[in-house]
Amino acid sequence: MRKMKITALLLVAATLNIPLAVNAQEHPNLIMTKAGVQKVRSNLGSVPLFDASVQSVKKEVDAEIALGIDTPIPKDFSGGYTHQRHKLNFLTAQKAGALYQILQDDKYAKYIKDMLFQYEAMYKDLPVHPQERSYARGKLFWQCLNDSNWLVYMSQAYDAIYDTLSVQERDKLENNLFRPFADFISIENPQFYNRVHNHSTWGNAAVGMIALVMDDKELLDRALYGIEDDGLEIGGRDNDGGFIKVAGQKAGFLANLEDPFSPDGYYTEGPYYQRYAMYPFLIFGLAMNNVKPEMKVFSHKNNVLLKGVDALLNLTDADGEFFPLNDGQKGMSYYTPALVTAVDIAYQYGDQNPQLLSIAEKQNEVLLDQSGLAVAIGIRDGKAKPFVKKSINLSDGQDGDQGGVAVLRYGNEDLTLVFKYAAQGLSHGHYDKLSFSLYEQGDEVVQDYGLARFVNIGQKGGGNYLKENKTWAKTTIAHNTLSINEEMHFGGKYEIASEHHSDLYFYDASKDDVQVVSAIETNAYPGTQMHRTMAMIKSEGFEKPFLLDIMKVNSNSKNQYDFPFYFMGQVLSDNFEYNSPTSLAPLGKDNGYQHLYLEGKGRPSSDTTQFSWLGDGKYYTLTSATQKSDELLLTRLGANDPEFNLRRDAALMIRRKGSANTTFASVIEPHGSYSPVSELSVNSDSSIAQLTVVHDDDKYTAVSIKDVKGQTSLFIVANEGASMSKKHTLKIDGKSYNWTGPYHYTGG
User: Fold this and answer.
1) Rounded Cα–Cα distance for residues 661 and 678 (Å)
2) H-only helix segments in 315-365
3) pLDDT (tens digit, 9 = 90+) per residue, 440-456?
4) Pick from 672, 479, 678: which is nearest to 572 by CA?
5) pTM (2 decimals)?
6) 518-550: per-residue pLDDT in tens?
7) What number of CA atoms fall less than 13 Å from residue 440's CA on the CB side?
8) How large is the angle between the packed helices 370-380 and 34-43, nearest 10 degrees?
9) Are 700 and 710 in contact (CB under 8 A)?
10) Which of 31, 369, 25, 33 is nearest to 214 (CA)?
11) What is the set of active-site residues?
């Protein structure tokens, strides 16, 4: 009798289109919760940043509602109309869901409902996307990755209006749209879904998010643990050359949470892709925290997700832009919406670090949920403290034993060194062991090229990666590190590179005047060891801190060594003569050399070579200890680039031929300033008179720096044994030096 009453009630509800909850869960429950929504509503009008964020989102969504809903048949790459339209749809729907819950205005629920049913009507007959470039084509978008984006956001929109829909309407959406959608990006595309990669993180989160809304255990297990029998062969490759499946590989969200993150929160693909992956990591993590708190996702791997937010913020320059390690687009910063999400969630569900509030103040927007409210209240109540970025050494690898990235900072980011001695970084990694970039107050001094891609600009390869990403951006010569015999590290072979990493020799940022990082690479070139030591030094004889760079090379054969510095600015002066060709020719035939024009060629005039440039109103001088037989090459990017896909960046390259064991020593010295307004030039000349390698053997390398006033400073690095407690004695020119630890510095 009871069963008959329930059945009759369901029939009446369906006939009259009355919402009737048969799911035991409350909605919303993913990102917003019933209790959270009530708290948000009760604080409206009293929290300025939150109120401003609501009004900004409302203006944006209302404008989209006024335009009407368009769900075009997909045809374009990223950057084209259909791609951008479907992307804007899911972004707008998610925001409309938040507005519906906060403002209780039915127009937002109707907008989402109408949009979802338009997608439901088209999806069941929708073929795969017509563009065939991707290894995993989507339906709405050219790749499953973007389809997963759609489902992550649409899950939130669906959750927000769940209780406004009838059982019949939910069944129609879930059976005709959401479950088929989840099956397509997972079971039908295991090569996309069942791997360790930022792509799969989005796929796992998408399936998991909709599973939580629908209370579907099978889908949730698929999201967390992957597909058990995926039918994939070991060794398959994606479009970037990365492995799809490797032996013993686990899959699913938890595997993606384990493998790519180091214990320090560094994500092996680099900050650009960590930024991209942090949204699904954190948004699905929050959903799990709300719906399945017993899983303790936020505390998984010793709170690695929340550590990841801190790591990301520390991998930015003074302007908040991420260092472009591996495939990274310059200009991407913590102002991106993904980092608004990261900062708000990390504040609310971490230890409520008041330094995060200062980042949120700069972002000037918050999420429209309880975490955004908490951040806005903290700012309103004056709890914000400056986010102080200090020197940091972030390990790479699941267990933190695959190299890493060190960032040395002096003062308030007056000088910042980024030193990469990490693992390959999956398919988005570059072949650049022991490379570096240098910044002064957010301005690039010596640059990393980043990726070769115009993201979402259709005129440039459909907004996707360009072929020059492989022929230039990933190559060794494109970076500030050593190239041997015009070959790439590991021969440019991903399967070899992915097996190796550089090793930290030592890192010491404990002193105010000298900070040092040193690492060793033994696998990039067979039979050759590269040992690079970089020291940021503030000496009394210099206006600003400077960077000392020592690259010691030991090889069992004689080689050609190329050592480039990709400086940013206008060439001012040099102390060597060179010839400029009347017509330009490429420097080489492949491995990136084919893209470099040779604009000048000369030889050192003395054992101390100097080269100065002006960049962003500041002067810089590169001083190098050189040999008479060295060649000094002035290069510029742009050869074999008929479509002008590459920037026309310049470099000074030191070429040393016929050497086996050798050492490169250089100082990059910031000094002075120039104002185009006052036209005042201050301290435009280098303070260095001579740079000399005064001792170099298997045990020790010592570099002497003599300034223009005649004062001499000395830096010694112990090449064997990096113990901080080991005592050393070395005699140079009759004078004994005694110290404890892996290096010694005496100022002028």
Assistant:
1) 49
2) 337-349, 354-363
3) 999 999 999 999 999 99
4) 672
5) 0.92
6) 999 999 999 999 999 999 999 988 999 999 999
7) 23
8) 30
9) no
10) 25
11) 273, 428
φ, ψ for residue 305 (rounded to 5)? -65, -45
Q: What is the signed CA dihedral for 219, 221, 223, 229, rounded to 10 degrees?
A: -100
Quick one: CA dihedral 225, 230, 235, 238, positive or negative? negative
Cβ atoms of 396 and 266 closer than 8 Å: yes
Per DSSP, helices labelled H in 366-474 are 370-380, 468
Rg (Cα) of the chain, in Å, rounded? 28
Cβ count near 527 (within 10 Å): 11
Rounded CA separation 688/669 (Å): 9
Q: How many C-alpha atoms does 112 have within 13 Å on its Cβ side? A: 32
Q: Is residue 422 a contact partner of residue 402, using CB atoms and an 8 Å limit?
A: yes
Between the alpha carbon of residue 736 and those of residues 26, 417, 469, 701, 730, the distances in Å are 76, 31, 50, 14, 6
- Give the pLDDT band of residue 20 (cuts 50, 70, 90): very low
User: Alpha-carbon distance 614 to 58, whole Å?
Assistant: 46
Q: Strand 514-521 vs strand 662-671: parallel, antiparallel, or unpaired?
A: unpaired
- What tokens were used for 44? 């409206």
Token pair 């910063």 is found at 333
Residue pair 138/128 in contact by the 8 Å Cβ criterion: yes
DSSP code for 605: S
pLDDT at 24: 60
Q: What is the pLDDT of residues 174-233, one digit of tens each?
A: 999 999 999 999 999 999 999 988 999 999 999 999 999 999 999 999 999 999 988 888
pLDDT tens-digit readout, 692-733: 999 999 999 999 999 999 999 999 999 998 999 999 999 999
- Closest alpha carbon to 208 in 252, 259, 158: 252
Tokens of 12: 């009446």
Of the chain, the end-to-end C-alpha distance in Å amounts to 96
Q: What is the SS3 assignment for 276?
A: helix
pLDDT of 256 > 50? The answer is yes
